[in-house]
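Attaching the record inline, Q. Sequence:
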Amino acid sequence: MHGWFCPNPTGVDTLEWREAPDPQPGPGQVRVRVHAASLNFPDLLIVENKYQFKPEPPFVPGSEFAGVVEAVGEGVTTLKVGQRVAALGGHGGFGTHALAMEGKCVALPDDFPFVDGAAFVMTYGTTQHALFDRGRLQAGETLLVLGAVGGVGSAAVQLGKVAGAKVIAAASTDEKCAIAKQLGADETINYSTEDLREALKRLTGGKGPDVIYDPVGDKFAEPAFRSIAWRGRYLVIGFAGGDIPKLPLNLPLLKSADIVGVFWGEYARREPEAYAKDKAELLQWYKEGKIKPLIDQTMPMHKLHDAYAYMASRGVKGKLVLVNEG
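Structure, as predicted:
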């Protein structure tokens, strides 16, 4: 195999394309020949030693990928050699071969493109767990999505409509707001040019959003939370904006509101039966055309450094996907 190895997690510049022996699947694992792998914000954090999961160096980053099962380990019963899968390996995706646990793989139909598969499991799994399980989003409620045209944000817009909610999409440019409309958003807010609180007051008749989906954090967290509806639920997804916000605790008291953490990876590990049900539901919604990953562009695997630079520019709309050629 070949892969982008991180010998020292001090940044993207340390990544080196190397040859190594093919990884051998252990009990409950499969080896996947990687056709496509998507770039997620945690893939940046992990090579900077800033993510909660810290693999032993040297390691290959790339948590989400899709390809064909090439070998199976002892005890694997639901997957077989030659099967198309989308997988969460934790790491390993930015190469030609990677290992994944059987339970972290989704068997893909033959007509499910690898590019979509590589951009599917993490973003939609995180968002489904956030909105339906942790956020208890109901039909007729109002959902605010911050960073609405990022990877998880674009999934939240689509799944909010699946839930029957009114979706307000907030993004940083008019172009991104227009894309959010195409994804199904009912209303949009350009928070670079509009006051977020005033816009939310206008769009909700002063009530505020029932559920706030926040993968951004930083300076938008407090004004968004101050706008939340009575008994609202504020979903902490991540901090792509940079700084981790510090919210005054009198705010949830005044609105009887919940601040809800969303750690989907740990949920999938601790509650495998619920996770398996979620996967089946997501595949059905994809088949019905209710959800589809927003792909900004595909890039050859050898251009991983360029992909990281593009992601850091905050210009990505949806997901960046790396593909192995040949």
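Residues 123-265 form a domain with the Rossmann fold fold (CATH 3.40.50.720). The chain has a mean pLDDT of 95.

More tomorrow.
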